[in-house]
Amino acid sequence: MELEDLAFPLVAGVLGTTDPDEGFADVDYAIFLGAFPRKEGMERKDVMEKNIGIFNSQGAALSKGAKKNVKCVVVGNPANTNAAILSRAAPNVDVKNISALTRLDHNRAQSMLAIKAGVPCDKVSGTIIWGNHSSTQYPDVRHAKVDGKPALEVVNKAFLESEYISAVQKRGAAIIAARKLSSAASAAKAICDHLRDWATGTSDQPFVSMAVKSDGTHYGIPEGLFYSFPVTCKGGEWTIVDGLPIDEFSKAKMQTTADELSEELTLALSLL
User: Could you tell me the pLDDT band of residue 127, with boundaries at 50, 70 and 90?
Assistant: First the structure.
C-alpha cells in the first residue's frame, strides 16, 4: 500500500509472494533486504546457519529465474558473507553482478566528515569504506577532500583516526539504541544510491564504496571475500580503483576487517 501511495510514475504494479521462483522470475535487479537477526541466547554460529539456509534457497531461485545480467545487492546482515553464500548458490549469475551494501557506511562517513568540517555534504568527496559491513569496517579519509582540500588538512588528524572511525563503525548500533529499530530511511537511500550509481555511472564522484568479490589482486585482500573497495561504475559495470597509496595505519585497519571476513566465511562454509 505504501509503494502504491508514493505514486511513483515508474511503479507499474506490485506483486507480493512467498514463492521465490515467482519473485525472482525475469528480474533485472534484486535487493536482498532481509536476513535472520540474532536473538537473545543465540550464538553467532546459530545466526550464520539460519542465514546460510535463506541465502542458499534464494540463490537457487535467483539462478533459475532471473535475467542473466541481474544486478543484486545484499543488505541483510552479515551482508558481506551472505553475498558470498548467495554467489555460490547462484551459478548462473555472474559474480560481478552480486554485491553487498556498504554505501550506507560510505554515506555516514561522508556526512560525519562534512559535519565536523562545517560544510555541506556535497563539498566532501573521496571517503572510502574498506572491508566488512560491521564494527571492524575501516572508514578511510586519507584520500578524501573537503571543499577541494585534503581532509587531513581540514579536520584534526587525531580525531579522524580515533573518534571518527569509532562513530562510523558504531552508527548502526547508535541508531538502534535511539529508535529501538535499525536504520530505515538512510538505508533505503543508500540502496538507491548504490543501484543508481551501478546502473548509470559514477562520473560525478571520484569513487564510491561497494562490497564486491575479491579476486586476490587488489590491496592484498584474499580471493573469495566480499570486501568493500573504492569503485567506479560505467556502463553497468564496477571497477575497483587501484593504485591508492596505503600507509601502515590503513593497512592494519584493512587487515583487521579482512581477518574478520575470512573467519566469517570459514564458519559459513563449514555449515554448508
Answer: very high
